[in-house]
Design brief:
Chain lengths: 171, 93, 491
């Protein structure tokens, strides 16, 4: 019961901040709301039994990515509010109408999914022989998923070089 | 499930409605977070840690994309002095 | 499950390892060699590609590597050859282009190699995680490549558009994938397939939602019509060799991914995705061709034509038979050469002051450079599907596969569309051969460009006249694609 309360509180916070991220006029505020949102998501991970991922979430997202965002927002320093010119209202309304419809649909599907007790599972869990969440995730990451892990390192190298190439002023 | 769906929808609305590239990009981050919540929730439900491994890869990719994407936005801004997508009009039909 | 990755796994991943090592070598060479040594770097890149191609030949048969994350089979082999060849032609095209634009070659070739690596992973991936990582390696490399010419505003704008829509589509695709994982409890496509055959899951609306999201996500990648808006802008704005590589390599890789995901992972949902792809194929062909009619920029026209070609290729997927799949492979192979060739000619036209991609730049080309004009004529005829070029064989095979699978009207729409497409292909030919005004730009050739053009011309004609070898290889490759998938997809 306590868990359910915690879950719904976290969920409310996450959604509330997400709405604020999308709707705030000021980009800097938006970024700050994004940080809060990420932190609450991290809390949710702990609740869902993924403490390792929660740590990653705080370190990489809230720590790394958001700082990057802030830097760019500062560099790009908006002199005028970008939303100021001619009305995107018609489109906004259409967007919200569509979104509400899709949300209702998704909600119906999700509740349908919940009312069915236990989805049919064929594949059993492939948890490693180790206790503890971090150990298990690490075990999987460095055994079964070693190859994608290595490719991800190449991906990060590409991103690094790309960011340098793109952001350098002169070649 | 419902939570991640709602977060996903908010992200999608953000992408469609806002005109500021950076906010659109943040909305995409929200979508990726929705994906991660989904993965972790399923992983907890199924007692199967593969979902968490998947989520770690998603985080790594999100970091890579953020670096590259913000680089692209910076390069664009230097030439055009705007981050508003309505002003991206060099090429039309 | 044995822990860890054995030496055997690394043996089967040899081509990828060679390519990765080569990419790093290019980076190091870029630092060590004196500045302005673009030619040397291009040579190194070509050698790396050749070495990778050679290492592909060392094994045959079907294997699953690294705990079923990557399949090494003839299907993957086929696509890998396509990627490597198109990467090599792209490098040949790029040498002069980079000199004109004054861009730094080291990072450029590195990114080309990394994009190729991503594609190769994608072609072999039979696990959602591998597929997703491969896709991203490819996509991130392309985001950077598209925006590589920084002083050019068009290039910037193209990069922003490609990046935002690409990242957005990735989000959608991933959401679909996370649902697939949640419903099956596995990320491995081959383990997943039988799970979905259960009567319980089959009609689960969440699964249908997942299929729709995945279709939308991959639809972005192949630029199928409701999701095609980025393609013309990106193709026009990107540096021409990158456009060529994007339209060929990225598209082929995305199709490889589609075939893997849908035929290997989701055969149970065949009726759902078949309808979606059928609608996509029809709309894509029609809109692509109609929009191409009014274009005056050649790169933009080729963008719309490549959208239309994606529509034709989807026909093979809708047919879902082994014949349809092999027709897709054949068409992708042929399309690679036609498209690369056409873009090579555009690069030929690039000069310091002229971009050379407007239709009027081509007017009277025949009188200034008959060989280039002839090559372009050949590619246009091939793209339009006129015998004896390769394009005809490809289209013929695709449409006959559709008829085989009783999709008569799909084939009819395809044929009608190719008839429409002839109009704009022929219009370019008219410009080249009949207009005599000298406003067009003067093409200039280099040995590298000539070689690239020659490869494309020879392939286009050779496959048009002797298609047999290719057909046999493609059929063998199609057969290795998840036995489960193909047999289940049969009506």
């Amino acid at each position: 019961m306590g868990q359910a309360i915690a879950f719904y509180t976290l969920a409310a916070f996450i959604l509330g901040f997400a709405v604020l991220v999308v709707s705030t006029k000021d980009t800097v505020h938006s970024v700050l709301f994004l940080v809060l949102d990420f932190l609450f998501v991290a809390a949710l991970y702990v609740l869902l039994g993924a403490p390792f991922l929660a740590a990653i979430q705080v370190l990489v997202y809230a720590g790394g990515i958001v700082v990057l965002y802030l830097f760019v927002v500062m560099l790009v320093n908006l002199k005028r509010p970008p939303e100021a010119h001619q009305d995107p209202h018609r489109r906004t309304k259409l967007g919200f109408g569509l979104a509400v419809a899709v949300l209702l649909e998704l909600g119906a599907i999700a509740t349908y999914g919940m009312t069915r007790t236990g989805s049919p599972l064929v594949v059993p869990g492939t948890n490693g022989p180790l206790p503890g969440n971090t150990e298990q995730v690490g075990w999987l990451l460095y055994t079964s998923y070693l190859i994608p892990f290595e490719i991800a390192s190449m991906l990060l190298l590409v991103a690094m070089i790309g960011a340098i190439v793109l952001a350098k002023r002169e070649l | 499930m419902l939570l991640s769906a709602a977060l996903f929808i908010i992200g999608v609305i953000g992408v469609m409605v806002r005109r500021n590239i950076i906010i659109i990009f943040m909305s995409i981050e929200l979508i990726l977070n929705a994906v991660n919540i989904n993965l972790v929730a399923f992983s907890a439900q199924l007692q199967n840690n593969v979902g968490q491994v998947f989520a770690i890869f998603v985080v790594a990719v999100a970091a890579a994309e953020a670096a590259v994407g913000l680089g692209i936005i910076l390069a664009f801004y230097r030439n055009k002095e705007t981050v508003n997508i309505d002003e991206m009009n060099l090429m039309k039909w | 499950m044995p822990a860890g990755v054995s030496l055997r796994d690394f043996y089967y991943l040899l081509p990828e390892l060679v390519l990765t090592g080569g990419a790093l070598l290019v980076l190091i060479a870029d630092v060590l060699l004196p500045r302005r040594s673009g030619h040397a770097l291009a040579w190194i890149t070509l050698l790396v590609l050749a070495a990778t191609l050679a290492s592909l030949g060392t094994f045959s048969g079907t294997h699953e590597v690294a705990h079923g994350l990557i399949a090494v089979d003839e299907f993957a082999l086929f696509f890998k050859v396509v990627f490597l060849v198109s990467a090599a032609v792209t490098v040949l095209m790029s040498v002069r282009y980079l000199e004109i634009e004054g861009a730094s070659p080291g990072e450029y070739y590195f990114l080309i190699l990394c994009a190729t690596l991503g594609m190769m992973i994608l072609a072999g991936g039979i696990d959602l995680i591998t597929i997703f990582i491969g896709l991203e390696t490819m996509a991130v490399s392309f985001y950077i490549l598209v925006g590589f010419i920084k002083p050019n505003q068009k290039s910037n704008e193209a990069a922003v558009k490609y990046f935002l829509l690409g990242a957005f589509s990735l989000g959608i695709l991933l959401y679909g994938m996370s649902l697939l994982y949640g419903l099956s409890g596995t990320t491995n496509l081959r383990v997943m397939a039988p799970v979905f055959f259960g009567p319980e899951t089959r009609h689960d609306p969440r699964l249908i939602l997942a299929v729709m999201l995945v279709v939308a996500g991959v639809g972005f990648k192949i630029a199928a019509v409701p999701f095609h808006m980025w393609a013309p802008d990106v193709y026009e704005g990107a540096p021409t060799p990158v456009t060529a590589f994007l339209s060929v390599g990225s598209k082929a890789a995305s199709f490889a991914m589609i075939l893997r995901i849908f035929l290997e992972g989701l055969p149970a949902m065949v009726h759902d995705w078949q309808i979606l792809f059928e609608a996509l194929a029809i709309v894509t062909m029609t809109v692509g061709n109609l929009a191409a009619l009014t274009q005056t920029n050649l790169k933009r026209m080729l963008a719309y034509s490549s959208i239309a070609h994606a529509g034709y290729i989807l026909i093979g997927l809708v047919a879902g038979t082994p014949r349809g799949v092999s027709a897709m492979l054949i068409y992708l192979f042929i399309y690679t050469f036609m498209q690369l060739g056409a873009f090579t000619v555009i690069v030929l036209m690039r000069r310091r002051d002229v971009v050379g991609d407007e239709l009027k730049d081509f007017s009277g080309l025949h009188f200034r450079h008959p060989y280039a004009a002839f090559a372009m004529l050949l590619f246009m005829l091939s793209l339009g599907g006129i015998p004896p070029t390769a394009g005809f064989m490809g289209k013929f095979w695709l449409f006959s596969a559709a008829i085989d699978a009783h999709y008569y009207w799909l084939a009819v729409i395809g044929v009608l569309n190719s008839a429409v497409s002839l109009y704009y292909y022929i219009r370019l030919v008219v410009f080249m051969y009949l207009k005599k005004d000298a406003t067009g730009s003067e093409p200039s050739t280099t040995p590298a460009l000539t070689v690239a053009l020659a490869i494309a011309v020879v392939a286009t004609i050779y496959i048009g006249i002797y298609p047999r070898v290719l057909f046999e290889i493609a059929e063998a490759s199609a057969r290795t694609l998840g036995v489960v998938g193909i047999t289940a997809a049969l009506p």
